[in-house]
Amino acid sequence: FGRGSRDLGIPTANIPLAGLSVGGHEELESGVYFGWAGVDIDEHGVRIGDPTTAQGGGGKIRGGNVWPMVMSIGWNPFYKNTVRSVEIHILHHFPRDFYGARMNLLVLGFIRPEYDYVDRESLIADIRTDIEVARRSLERESYQRLRGEQYLVQFEGGEHEQEVAR
Asked: Among 37, 101, 126, 158, which lies 20 to 30 A Cα-Cα from 87?
């Protein structure tokens, strides 16, 4: 959709709903969540590693960084979407887009249900509140410990990536 950065000034990584598998619970309630995002990029948005050259480990590569994230799952009624989508906003400023990067998510909590909005300003205000709720929540020691989960920085080879992108 690409509206996060262009229309709202809040960049998002958009993934197809088929690419979201959360502990076997693909049918998450529409709404806003928070957690950690492991991405195979550095702090500048440059890809780390290459799945075609991964050695051993069944095509897995380790590497990447973990950032706090806020995630919207839903229909985005303000934009009248006809398909359900997943949009992830990473709480870090990247100087470039990182299309094609691989991402692992650890969803830790629910912030609020999905709402419709009468104007863009109200939508942006709520997103900014969601970001602050996520940031404060993830500062808790119990959530900080989970930032180190190895799963977040272990990425499979390109096969799954291609399957999800179709």
From this structure: 158
